[in-house]
């Protein structure tokens, strides 16, 4: 999992700066890397200031790590340190999108938050010299942007994605806004074809983890979800690999749940620097 943040939505430092008044999002940037394999996962999310940010239409550099688009391939060169147990992460990720026409989609009623599945179908190469991990397979690239902090708009959201086959991907979004308004999307993204909206499947509650974050996923009525691996289990956020049945097909899905009421609580904010150190 690789995410580039400009105005890191989960940054406790950015949250404190906003509480004092208008804050520059470029002063709170990070490259988040999460590597999952047998044993303990490796996680890096060091926040850096505006002086360590370079960005343009085809590149983003935050500190020593950078992403570059050459017109055909998005390449990320990573030089980070994992936390809380220090370990160097040094490697390269190459993502080659397959043609799939998409456009930004509003996630809230006010149109202040957009999600864009830029490359829902892609071929990915992962080569890390440190820790010596290599992988080839199918990948996915999207983008989120907002005109306000997430916690001002939403109380919860649940998201899941799976490849249906070599040329089809499906994404499910469920959001709950602070005023209680709900939105749900189920989209099929097919190579070379327009995005297709699918009928919503049944919503199922998943067993909660150690922190008690509510988790939901959509799947065919009458089927039972299988948690293949719990990737992240935090005080406001979870990520899992699930075995599901979507429209009659067995799939392996990445599923995420986010509790933004929890995120805003002072005790959660006080814990975040242990996973998100700042090196301005």
TrEMBL record:
| Record-given protein name | Carotenoid 1,2-hydratase
């Amino acid at each position: 999992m690789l995410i580039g943040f400009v105005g890191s939505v989960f940054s406790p430092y950015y949250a404190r700066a906003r509480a004092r008044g208008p804050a520059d999002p470029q002063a709170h940037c990070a490259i988040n890397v999460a590597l999952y394999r047998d044993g303990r996962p490796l996680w890096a999310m060091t926040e850096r200031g505006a002086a360590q940010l370079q960005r343009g239409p085809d590149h983003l550099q935050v500190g020593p790590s950078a992403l570059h688009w050459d017109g055909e391939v998005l390449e990320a060169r990573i030089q980070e340190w994992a936390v809380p147990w220090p370990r160097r992460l040094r490697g390269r990720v190459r993502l080659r999108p397959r043609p799939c026409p998409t456009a930004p989609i509003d996630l809230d009623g006010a149109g202040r938050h957009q999600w864009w599945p830029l490359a829902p179908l892609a071929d990915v190469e992962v080569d890390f010299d440190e820790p010596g991990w290599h992988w080839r397979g199918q990948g996915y690239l999207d983008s989120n942007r907002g005109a306000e902090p997430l916690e001002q708009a939403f109380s919860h959201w649940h998201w899941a994605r799976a490849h249906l086959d070599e040329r089809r991907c499906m994404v499910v979004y469920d959001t709950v806004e602070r005023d209680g308004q709900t939105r749900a999307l189920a989209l099929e993204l097919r190579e070379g074809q327009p995005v297709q909206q699918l009928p919503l499947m049944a919503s199922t509650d998943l067993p909660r983890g150690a922190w008690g974050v509510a988790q939901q996923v959509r799947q065919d009525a009458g089927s039972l979800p299988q948690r293949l691996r719990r990737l992240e289990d935090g005080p406001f956020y979870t990520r899992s690999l699930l075995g599901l049945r979507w429209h009659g097909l067995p799939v392996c899905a990445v599923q995420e749940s986010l509790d933004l009421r929890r995120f805003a609580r002072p005790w959660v904010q006080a814990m975040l620097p242990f996973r998100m150190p700042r090196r301005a």
